[in-house]
Amino acid sequence: MRSPGLAAMTGPGPAEPADGPAAWLAAATARHRGGDLDGAAALYRRVLDRVPEHPLALQRLALIGCQTGVPASAVALVRGALAAVARGSWPGAVDLVACHDTLGTALAAVGDPNGAAAAHRAALALAPARAALWFNLANALKAGGAEAKTAAAALGRAVACDPCHAAARIGRANALAALGRAATAAGEFRAALALAPGHADALHGLGEAMAARGDDAAAVAPLRWAAAMAPTRAALAYRLAVALAEAGDRPGAIAACRATLAHDPGFAAAHDTLGSLIDRDGRPQAAVPCHRTAVALAPAVAPYHYNLANTARRIGRPEEAEQGLARARALDPTLAVARYNHAMVALGLGPSAEAWAAYDLRFTAGDAQPQRAIARPSWTGARLVDGRLLVWREQGIGDEVMFARHYPAAAARVGTDRLVIEAEPRLGAPIGRALPGVAVRAAPDPPDPAADRSPPPDLACHLPAGSL
After folding, report:
1. What is the model's pLDDT at position 55?
2. 283 Cβ partners below 8 Å, 6+ apart?
3. CA dihedral defined by 200, 204, 207, 213, rounded to 10 degrees?
């Protein structure tokens, strides 16, 4: 957050000796502007020893409190300045804008964003054309959980007041990106970079905006530049790794992950991603230690357990895979892909009712197609008193041939006149010949969602072929 400016102030006041409060204040101001905060603070206190309610000395000392990490004392000091003005105990001119803005800065630092926003609004009521005030208000609004559009509006006012305010442009671009306006955000990031070339946050934001537009290849260049401009910021190197992986540059992504870990060995996500990249590179044995490290660093993250388990399964460690998938499910019961893969591993270790139930999540997990939403209950294996059972094809033709061996049992269970099979057109005739009396029809390709929502009245239930 940008700090309030040091506005010079004069006031009539009584005549004072050359070494009195006026001279001390001038010397303090010079030291403050020169960066000598300790020297300035000592002189401001000297002024306050002589004139305890001097508003400018109180406000400036409060500002130093914000700058040196002592915001609680800053709140008390600047409120004392405003109280002195309200009582009329100071006859000179007072920069109320600076007082309110400093109060906002201090309140934000002590964790009161709503109070900070109110103070910045009070400053803006007196000086609505100051970009820094709008910028500070926007930061307080974001900290208080305001909607992105509210912060974007305040930052837009800051940019309108000062088109060269690079930080305001970056903040506005981030707010626009949060609103889903990636193209506009990208333009704002570019405008900020024109003002501050090589600004790591602007470059990072531009890369994120490119990725949000679906152009992963275009995201790589600004993200690579951002990582180069801030080489010790591991998060930027990691974001570059993700972009490179999305763009199909696996060797580059692996190198960027290693660069991330060189700066931050405890970066769990980088260990996990590195493991996944190495696994996809055909080296699952080398991937396992990466995934194990990610799990050790962040044991409460379900996907890390899931990725470790999948790699363990590929290298023939079903027990470790089963344990990892069980842990992933326990951490996140909604993680369908973990439940499904857990079912596959569990079925390999020994079939169970729970494993077969989880196997039905293969569509949600993205391991089987098509995913259909037929407006009838799934068949439980019970005999039908009325209506018919639809068994529909899934996955490829080879899978369908494999599943077809269960069709005779289904026909025997419900009756050939109550079974309808949807098959790949090339398999329709052979299945029909093998199952006289069973209705066999070509499966819709692709399925018609409208038809699935309104199935025939005589359809009692349905089941994908792989669930037989």
Report:
1. 85
2. none
3. -140
Across 147-157, average pLDDT = 91
> 464: helix, coil or strand?
strand
Q: Which of 100-104, 138-142, 323-327 has the lowest mean pLDDT?
A: 323-327
Residue from 383, 395, 410, 380 nearest 466 by CA: 395
Q: What is the pLDDT of residue 16?
A: 43
Q: How does 401-414 read in b/e, with b if 16+ C-beta sit within 10 Å? A: eebbeebeebbebb
Asked if 107 contacts 101 with a C-beta cutoff of 8 angstroms, the reply is no
Sign of CA dihedral 451, 454, 458, 461: positive
Pairing of strands 419-423, 388-392: parallel
For residue 352, the tally of other CB atoms under 10 A from its CB is 12
- List phi, psi (to 5°) of 93: -70, 150
| Spatial separation of the C-alpha atoms in residues 229 and 227, rounded to whole Å | 6
Give dist(CA 177, CA 173) in Å, integer. Answer: 6
pLDDT: which is higher, 396 or 57: 57
pLDDT at 360: 65
Higher pLDDT, 401 or 241: 241
Helix extents (H) in 110-161: 113-126, 131-143, 148-161
AA identity, residue 455: P
**Lowest-pLDDT choice from 277-286, 289-298, 364-373:** 364-373
E strand segments, 346-458: 388-392, 419-423, 439-442
> 355 versus 103: which is more confidently predicted?
103
The mean pLDDT of the chain is: 85
In this predicted structure, what is the pLDDT of residue 5?
40
CA–CA distances in Å: residue 251 to residues 245, 246, 274, 281, 408: 8, 12, 10, 9, 51
Q: For the sheet with 439-442, list strands across it.
A: 439-442, 419-423, 388-392, 459-464
Bond preceding residue 222 cis, omega within 30 of 0: no
Which tokens in the block code for residue 448? Answer: 């018609």
What's the whole-number mean pLDDT along residues 296-314? 90
Q: Annotate 271-285 with b (16+ C-beta within 10 A) or e (fewer).
A: bbbbbbbbbeeeebe
The b/e string for 289-317 (b: 16+ C-beta within 10 A; e otherwise) is ebbbbbbebbeebbbbbbbbbbbbbeeeb
| pLDDT at residue 459 is higher than 50 | yes
Give pLDDT, residue 15. 40
- Residue 334: count other Cβ atoms within 10 Å of its Cβ: 9
pTM value?
A: 0.66
